[in-house]
Amino acid sequence: MEQRSNAFIELASEAIAEPEKAIYRSALGAAMPPLRNTAVAQFGGDEAFDALRRNVRERRRHSTAHLGYYLEQFVARARENGNTVHFARSGSELNDHVLAICHAAKVQRVIKGKSMVTEETGLNQALADAGLNVRETDLGEYIIQEAGETPSHIVGPALHKTPDDIRQLFFERHDLGDRDLDRPEDMVAEARAVLRQEFLAADAGIIGSNGLIASTGHTMLVTNEGNGDLCVNLPRVLIICTTIDRVFPRPEDAMAMLRLLVRSTTGQPVTSYTSFYQGPRRGDDEDGPLETHLVLLDNGRSELLQGPYEEMLQCLRCGACLNHCPVYMNAGGHAYGWVYPGPMGSVLTPLLTSLETSAPLPDACTGCGRCAEVCPALIPLPDLIRDLRAEKHARGVTARRWRLGMALHAWLARHPRLYQHTTAIGIWLLRRMAGRRGVLKRLPLAGGWLKSRDLPVPPESSFLASHRERLS
Amino acid sequence: MTDSTDNNLAARPAPSAVFGSTPEPTPEKGPEVALFVTCLADLMRPSVARASLELLEAAGCTVTIPAHQSCCGQPGYNSGDYAGAMAIARQVIETFEPYPYTVLPSGSCAGMLVEHYPRLFDGEWRERATRFAARVHELTSFLSDVCDYQPPATGSGAVAYHDSCAGLRELSVRDQPRSLLRHAGVEVRELKQSEVCCGFGGTFCAKMPDLSAAMADEKLKDLADSGADTLVGGDLGCLLALAGRARRRDLPLHFRHVAEVLVQDADTPPIGESPTS
Question: Tens digits of per-residue pLDDT, A201-251?
């Protein structure tokens, strides 16, 4: 996928400037957290949920620490189950594998379940370029595919679209005759009717995975719409595209993770469908795919092992950090300019692409800490985001004037007498410029602050200057 | 000596010898406190520092104000200048660690000392920073939790309270300022989205002004909806940024630090307002 992360500030400003969309996002921002909080309360409260979070973190740390071992075990079991396993170091390698599989099996029509991994590799475009017909079947993905857009949220890809947007889109794209689409149910039924034909006509299904079970070779998928199971069971070829960091040692480890994932994502105790896929149709099976392929993508993830950002490999892709992030809710997901938005995206994007091509993302955070509070994987997102800023600073990605400003500030702060003299001059200047007003509206070098707010004017004398007799 | 196994700490006479524990204030002699004024209170709002001093003394503390103080290092730290932040942190620790308690009228500055100074270091300095952190408090939680202070009930009116993120999440400051305000006779209204950031975020508001303003506007709407026209909080960063936004939009809303309200400072106009406005 083409990256526009360096345009974050401009893209966010454009998003804010659309009042209707901004109000819609703000309503979403207020609606999502209570879902998660209710689910946590029903689970037994924060303490019980924390205990489970810590438990799952240990399981995940164990599987990450022994990733090579469990990956090897998974691949051996998956092959025993009749799957063909492919490894892809980069996104284009994954696309090449999928194209080769489709070519060999004479696949023309492809249906897909929701997969952020294939968004990362730009698979749909690669398939379309090769002349294949690709249809997204997750309702949200279907909507944005019809609109020619990219996901704005890792769980709800079309969350940026209002019901009116979707109604309008369906009127443009579908032959609806004199039918109307007044209610959301009507729109769902319309998409369902279109998709049913696509399911039946497809040669291959492509899905992602929420977990790879090393001890059994199964892959796990959770959905609410059941489209994943149709992608798996109706076409003759199944291709599962996922990443190497999804491995769990045993089924019970994946199940423990599920209890966190779904509550954190939608506030449900469990999704409508939780499926485990073993392999191709066997001798006396009546249905199922005839051939199954697993494509395991690395794309920079193995480089995170044992490094300062290793914890990011434990991300469950639940979207809770997005749902609780005021920056995400105001900027919208597209502003982040790549596949993964919000706090997890602000960490993952620089790591999987580069800091140079996503320089504003680590700054797109007020450090409010709400994401870390709700993260089911207990990833210290604000700390990782700040560490990326430190890397920007050290590598000179941060603008020179900011680095010099910070160096000057740190030096002055360590020389309090000089600091007090310097700031006294600053106060005198500010007060002269402000005149009799309580605030300043214009000021050199303070363009950022003054673009959207006035600057309250400091009083004549600082506290320390006016209390010298009290100081020790 | 290891901090956790020494059972005789409470019996030790000199509080300054106590590291990593919280000495009980004795009735005959109140806690000895060093006031870290914080740069924003010092320069932008001295009334907050005056009120903090007054409150601590009213709570029976013996207050020292070290002259050798400036900024806690947050701007550099949050901009990724860890080396600069470490240098500042060492100096703050050296200045303030002789005192039994260090109190700051700011959740984010206190959070910097408590949560982030230890994170900056390894080895000996990390231990030193951790021992120091145990004796650092945000003003309202110190007045409530350590001093058990109850202000005289001579206040009036209704305000809404703004939980700044660092105080709320790093230091669990939530009930203490509300309880102090209620004791002072001030009605406290709750914002609907009290756990959502106001968009200040230190350098964030200068680097991403449109986003910051959008977040501030949601907070200001929440304030207006609460029926109170004054927002009270424990962090000048948030309050200056919100007041600046409200002035830019000409909104009839007022902003004050909780310490000013608790001492009923009527002489100082609300933040961003001139005495005549």
Answer: 999 999 999 999 999 999 999 999 999 999 999 999 999 999 999 999 999
Closest CA to A259 of A47, A34, A53, A41: A53
Asked if residue B201 and residue B100 are part of one domain, the reply reads: no
The reported pTM is 0.93
Predicted confidence (pLDDT) per residue in A407-455, tens digit: 999 999 999 999 999 999 999 998 988 887 778 888 776 778 899 999 9
Which of B110, B145, B180 terminates a domain? The answer is: B145
Residues B28-64 have pLDDT tens digits of 678 999 999 999 999 999 999 999 999 999 999 999 9
The residue type at B189: R
B1 located within any domain: no
Distance CA B85, CA B105 (A): 20
Provide the 8-state DSSP code for A471.
B
Cβ neighbours of A411 in B, within 8 Å: 84
Chain A interface includes B50 (CB < 8 A): yes
Which among A36, A406, A457 is the top mutation candidate for probing chain B, defined by the most B β-carbons within 10 Å of its own β-carbon? A406
**Smallest CA–CA distance from B194 into chain A, residue:** A30
Closest CA to B218 of A332, A327, A365: A327
Q: Is residue B134 situated within a structural domain?
A: yes
User: Hey, what domains does chain A have and what are their CATH numbers?
Assistant: 1-43+319-398 (no CATH), 45-303 (3.40.50.10420), 414-470 (no CATH)
Looking at the structure, tell me whether residues B140 and B156 fall in a common domain: no
Which of B114, B145, B176 terminates a domain? The answer is B145
What's the CATH number where B71 sits?
1.20.1050
Is A461 in Cβ contact with B204 (below 8 Å)? no
B166 strand-pairing partners: none
Asked whether residue B13 falls in the same domain as residue B60, the answer is yes
Interface of A with B in 259-278 (CB under 8 A): none
Pick the residue from chain A with its C-alpha nearest to B82.
A390
